[in-house]
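Supplementary Note 3. Input sequence used for the single-chain structure prediction.
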Amino acid sequence: MRPSGPTIAAAIVLALEGIALGIVSIIELLALGGGGTSSTIGGIALIVLTLIAAVALGAFSWGTLRRASWARSGGVVFQVLGVALGLASLSLEPRVWLFTLGVGGPALIGLVLLISATRRDGASDPRLRRGDEPGQRG
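The predicted structure, written as discrete structure tokens, is reproduced below.
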């Protein structure tokens, strides 16, 4: 079965977030090479963790297109963390609105799209319909 519109849109949002994290890891790598970090070990660990998150978002994007529930649930976790990070950035002085909107905005859009995709995919899944259980009399 072909993926729905919200599923495709959610996969695009997840893929773009993964690409953005990949770019952030390149920036971190350049800062590490230029001596812009206080700890080399800490900088390397941050780069590795950022790359792991980028690959995970790419996998969630691919899995969302294939209607895999593990991918949607993993994507939802990342989106909730993004919304929480965006909201937490409002407590800092001075407020960096570009960061707040740049992290929280796409995360909120991705969360809404993933929930919509889950609802549509769940409605079209024959395993989740009532009365379709084996051994049940109609």
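The chain has a mean pLDDT of 88. The CA atoms of residues 10 and 114 lie 6 Å apart.
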